[in-house]
Amino acid sequence: MTDTRGTAGTPTGRVAGKVALVTGAARGQGKSHAVRLAEEGADIILLDLCRDIETNGYPLATPRDLEEAVLEVEKTGRRAISAEVDVRDRAAIDAAVAAAVAEFGHLDIVVANAGICPLGDGPLEAFADAFDVDLVGATNTIHGGLPHLNAGASIIATGSVAALLAAGSQGGPSGAGGAGYVLAKEMLTTYVHRLAQVLAPKSIRANIIHPTNVNTPMLQSTPMYRQFRPDLADPGPDDVTDAFASLQAMPEVPWIEPADVSEAVVYLASDASRYVTGLDLTIDAGAILGRGGRR
């Protein structure tokens, strides 16, 4: 086998010729994953809601964000197909994936990344919205991709260190929406483990990545600032850096970058991880070390 390894961030064609589906692809982690996979040779299907959800306390991506993500993928020389799709709508997911696969000819990688984290004293509906986007949306994405996957395919879900810590009795995000988020990510972890067992005889892999704080609009938002600094009425970015950093065991790490997670996505999507399945991969700068978090 040809050695295609290189330094982090250096394109080496690790997923050349593959087609990847990425949800939540208009910005944040999803956009980073889409562009990084394209840099490594994949054509990309980018799906995103591109409108706000009322119970979520920070704005979500826009149609313009999705257009810009497509342009960044195309700048790598790879092809891109995008659609504004609500991951909670299984029929819409199925239709969008089928149409893109008909254009590209195959599907090899599914990155179920779309998610929200409505925090604070919001309405009870926030619990349902978080659960539906973060768990139902992830399973809809994966199930929409399953009919198109063959041996060698890779499924990658976005979990959360927050859910692992909550499972270890270390608390978690606040409010009804926070509870829905944690439950969804906990159940998604179990789902990926069981899915990996089901798919292993078909040589299709399923893994889940659990990041700590990631420098995205979800983290850099007023509800998240208040989660980490409840002692302040109106905390801003400068007020939360130390609080963010307190979660990680490694010093002076308030957050990681989307690119740090994208490197793991590329690895799990590539043949370099061809025997890796059912894995909980934490990218957390030591956030769960000694805290009783589930591994």
TrEMBL record:
Transmembrane segments: none
Alphabetized InterPro entries for the sequence: NAD(P)-bd_dom_sf, SDR_fam, SDR_subfam_1
A Pfam family: adh_short_C2
GO molecular function, one term: oxidoreductase activity, acting on NAD(P)H, oxygen as acceptor
Keywords, in A-Z order: NAD, Oxidoreductase
NCBIfam families: SDR_subfam_1 (TIGR03971)
Family the UniProt entry places it in: Belongs to the short-chain dehydrogenases/reductases (SDR) family.
Protein name, UniProt field: Mycofactocin-coupled SDR family oxidoreductase
Organism: Gordonia jinghuaiqii
